[in-house]
Design a protein that fits this description.
heterodimer, A: alpha+beta, two-stranded antiparallel sheet, 3 helices, B: mainly alpha, Rna Polymerase Sigma Factor, Chain: A, Arc Repressor Mutant, subunit A, 0% strand
Chain lengths: 123, 187
Amino acid sequence: MSRLPWRKIETSLRTERPESGMKPADAFWSDFKARARLCNQDSPVGSVRVPMFLRWGLATTCAAALLAVVVTQGGLGSTEGGSHIKSLEVVASHSAVMIIEDEPTESTILWIVDMSLDRGEST
Amino acid sequence: MSGKPDVLLEQAKNGDVDAFAELFENLRPSVHAVACRLVGTADADDVVMDTYLKAWKALPRFGERASLKTWLYRITRNCGLDLIRSRSRRPAFVLQGNDERENPLENLPDETQRLPGEDLERDELVDCVKAAMSRLPPKHRLALQLRFTDDLSYGEMAAVMGVSIGTVMSRLFNGKRKLRKILEEAE
C-alpha cells in the first residue's frame, strides 16, 4: 500500500473552506451599529470578581465561626460542665462535620468539611 | 478612515463604533469561518453578530493579554455554544456541502483503473479527503479544519476549541493519523 504524503492531504484540506455566504460588509455593519447603540460598553475597570472558591471558603469559615460562637454561647444546649450539642443539621451538602472541644477556651468548634453548593463548588 | 490598529483599538474602547468596524472588519472572514465550523453556515452570521456585539460591549475591558484575534475566537466559541444550547442541537461539525449519500470513498475506481495514491488526480483526492474527514470524530475533524483549512494558530485553536494547546496538538496528531488511515484503507 502506498503511503499518501501528508503534504498532498494538507493541500486538499486547504480547499475545504466552506462557501462563505458571509453577509456583505455594508449590511453587516449597519445592522451592527443599530444594535450597538442599544448596548452600552462595559466600564474599562470591571467590577472586582472574587473567585468562587474564595467566596465559598470565606462563607464556610464564617459559618463555622458562627456555629462555634453559638455553641460557646450556649446556643445549642451547652451546659456549665462544657458544651453539649443535642442536635445539628447542615443543610448544604458536605463530607463531614468535626466537633472539636477546645478545653482552654471551654468552647466547641464545629468544622464543616467540603460544604458545597448547588453548582458543585466546594471549599 | 484608515488608522493604525492600536489607535483604532483605543478609539473603539472609547465608544467609537466606526473605529470598531474598521478594526474588526478584516477579522470577520476568519470569525465567520470559525462560526461555520461550530454551528454550520446557516447560523454563522448570527454567531458573528453576537460575537461582535459581545466584543463591542466588553472591549473596554480587553486587557491585551491575549491577541485580539484569540480573544475574539474565544467569544465566538461561547456565542456558538450559546446558540447550540438555545436551539438544543448538536454542533454541525460537518463539512459543508458534503453529502454522505455520495461518499466518494465508495465510488473509487476499481483496482484495474486505480492509480497509486501519489498519482491520484487532485480533484479526486480532494473528494476523498472530504469524505474521509466526514468519517473522523468531530473533535479531530475540527482540529484539522481549523489548522489546515482556516490557518489558525495553536493558541487560536485552543480558544475556539476550549482546550489547552497540548490538547490541540494531541488532537491534531491523532486526527492526522486517523485521516491518513481512512484514506489508505480506501485506496
